[in-house]
What we know:
The chain has 320 residues and is an alpha/beta fold. The protein has one domain (81-320). The chain contains 8 helices and 9 strands. The chain has helices at residues 68-72, 95-108, 116-124, 138-154, 177-195, 249-258, 261-276, 292-295; strands spanning 4-5, 35-36, 77-80, 83-86, 127-131, 164-169, 216-218, 221-228, 242-248. A 5-stranded mixed β-sheet has the order 5-6-9-8-7, with helices on both faces. A two-stranded parallel sheet has the order 1-2. A two-stranded antiparallel ribbon has the order 3-4. The radius of gyration is 19 Å and the shape is globular.
Amino acid sequence: MGTRPARWGIHAPNLPPPMLLADARPFPNASRHALDTADAPHPGRCPLHAAGELGCGEPPWNPLHRHPEAAGQSRYLAPEDGELVPILGTAPATAQERAIHARFQSKVQEPGFPCVAARSVFNRGTYRFGAYGRLGSSRAALALCHDLYEFAHEWPVGQPAFASLIAAFPAPVVADESAFEHLLWQQLQLMHDIDRQFFGWDRAVSRDPAHPQFSFSIGARAFFVVGLNPCASRHARRTETSLLVFNLHDQFEALRASGKFEPMQQAIRQRDLAYQGSLNPMLDDFGRQSETRQYSGRAVPHDWRCPFQFRHPAAPTGEP
């Protein structure tokens, strides 16, 4: 991948971690990609550097790098010449991963598929993909946090290309949309409970799931999460395998700043109308109502409350 810009993280080396994270720790710079330390820290990532702690030349963007289960279950695969290839020294793509990827790619590249951003991601190859086992599990949470830390580092703020991390979950077979929604939020909660031990919430967005400016945060980077599953009522969200697609929030802000977001949004809505025969009632502009209502794809009632609970970081983050 070449040299990647430095990202800054929060690590609490003196914090007694739970057994699950006993092996999570910073790593030597020489063992990872080269760093460009000229970059300023991301606003949401306030490094802690007490005497004798990790220096600014070794920002711990992936504190799970040496965790045996998190790193061992990593599935950070990239498209290359029509194949999925590991780029972090992980095992090659399995037959199951190749099959899930091929089906989803075929769906996204259908002529009428509504999401033009997803089509662009596949056409340009600006995505990472992996199968993470069971949706709503601690094992998947560890591996996904590990890979999202790498993803956020690989695509820093200001990167021009739109990029996504696509996480597939072959199990369990969900019974209906509500079951998928429950597992989606269980998965995100488990990931947050790990992430809060190392990073604060991205300050560019709200951490209150009921707030109109909420976005999910991992590694102090905000993500808009799109859930797809076999029981989805919307055709565009219906896939043979449950998927969570993580899209960096700052990419949408960059599109807004360039004047490209509204035309793209209108194109998606018109294509969705043609694809489904009706507009998605859950779609709304960021800042009007909480985007949590859109994550699962289910048409939630007006009085629906997001089950996600923000928990304060396990270490000081410099947040007010």
